[in-house]
Design goal:
Two copies of one chain form a homodimer. By secondary structure, chain A is α+β, with helices and mostly antiparallel strands. Chain A has helices at residues 32-44, 77-87, 142-152, 200-212, 218-226; strands spanning 7-15, 51-52, 61-71, 92-100, 112-121, 134-136, 154-157, 172-183, 186-193, 242-249, 252-253, 260-261. In chain A, strands 1, 2, 3, 4, 5, 6, 7, 8, 9, 10, 11 and 12 form a twelve-stranded mixed β-sheet that branches. In chain A, helix 1 crosses helix 2, helix 3 packs across helix 4 (200-212) and helix 3 packs parallel to helix 5. The longest helix of chain A has 13 residues, at 32-44. The radius of gyration of chain A is 19 Å and the shape is globular. The relative contact order of chain A is 0.20. Chains A and B meet through helix 2 and strand 4 of A and helix 2 and strand 4 of B.
Chain lengths: 264, 264
Amino acid sequence: VYSARPVIARLELAWDGTRYAGWQRQLDAVTIQQTLEEALARLTGEAVAVIGAGRTDAGVHAHGQVVSFRLGRDFQLSGLIHGANHHLPADLRVLAAAAAPEDFHARRSAIAKEYRYRLWRGRTPPPERAPFVVPTEADPAVDTLAAAARLLVGEHDFAPFSVTGGAPGPTVRRIFSAAWESNGHELIFRVTGEGFLRGMVRRLVGTQLELARGRRTLDSLADLLADPGAGEAGPSAPARGLALERVDYADGPGAGPGSLRAVG
Amino acid sequence: VYSARPVIARLELAWDGTRYAGWQRQLDAVTIQQTLEEALARLTGEAVAVIGAGRTDAGVHAHGQVVSFRLGRDFQLSGLIHGANHHLPADLRVLAAAAAPEDFHARRSAIAKEYRYRLWRGRTPPPERAPFVVPTEADPAVDTLAAAARLLVGEHDFAPFSVTGGAPGPTVRRIFSAAWESNGHELIFRVTGEGFLRGMVRRLVGTQLELARGRRTLDSLADLLADPGAGEAGPSAPARGLALERVDYADGPGAGPGSLRAVG
């Protein structure tokens, strides 16, 4: 059914971030936002401004970014998915699409996000996994990582874990869950929270790795979470290990109710 | 133990072929052979000429290419693996290494090779799989593919399946096994044989896909295998679906007995 009234589209995206300068439009670099907006403009003939739930940094991947945008007229879900993918490069895909309520806003409506950070146990990830994992030459102490992750859960001032250049404003965030899990050679940090400061997940990983290597104690992490002035966080872990995995909304994750999926 | 006598090295390699112009050295393009020889020269200080078991085309991947080369002095397996990987880009990895007998020759000593060709059932492979699979919009008839694969087994003149520009010479090859298998969204053609003509696996796939789509009959394939003058083979399937999976020798696959593996 087509109509002349404007409608809100809600898409779920995945990308290999290797060659992108992150989500947000920049004047002199190729970003996900720009690539998507250009593909949607070619498809619809409209100038499209997309809102992304997460503003990921250069080199970070996504398996479930959610975006919203307004179109001047109704659209078919299948045509939107496959038409956009036709105009997009193969390293950026629309996985699912839905029509959303007028007040849906991919960033402001989000209630939780999940990120995953993937380490490779060993020095030699195979070429197919190398863009998505970070090798750890010394096998990290898994018990210590698990204990560190448990400390992160809850509401804390994460200012020490933000990067310079992050937006000013409140630095308290609530983490719902944080854990490490093994999957073959991969050692994966899964963290969900209502929101994250810029660079926060990568510094959480870098700090936990210092801990697992004995360069920092669990107590010093607990102190830092209780008092942002208590010390310094660890370094940022490399971007390529990080992926935005899922975005949750009150009505469900990803493209939400009534969505059509591309794969299958 | 180091010695001044020359020794033969035997390596097992994997690569993502996306940005390479194939295995064999070329004057004006980046190839796997050249990239490997340059890394080994930097590591050893010797000019190294490597022999590859399979001479894969541009865009074809490998999970188990085997190469051999002569070094002027003995070497440590661990130093060879990690030293070479240090000098190689992340999309080309040494997976395992061994010292080989003086008469070992990666191509001439090979007794069998396995290739796999990966289709994606659906229009939208996720970005991480997109470089390694070829989408099939219409789901191919799996029973027909299975019957076609069975026809390929045995000794046939595969001249119709070679590409122009292939080396002159005998075109009879023995195929040991050929089958299609499913793995999630992937539909995989596995074929092992004592050797393959240039472009042969991709045209075997293209021909079977014509068959599965009803554009060709099983009888016409049987006729073509019995008499190379009976007709034309199908088109080449795209390079990115193909990978050299394993090379077998009398003493075992890959880097062989006494080899050290990089991963783990």
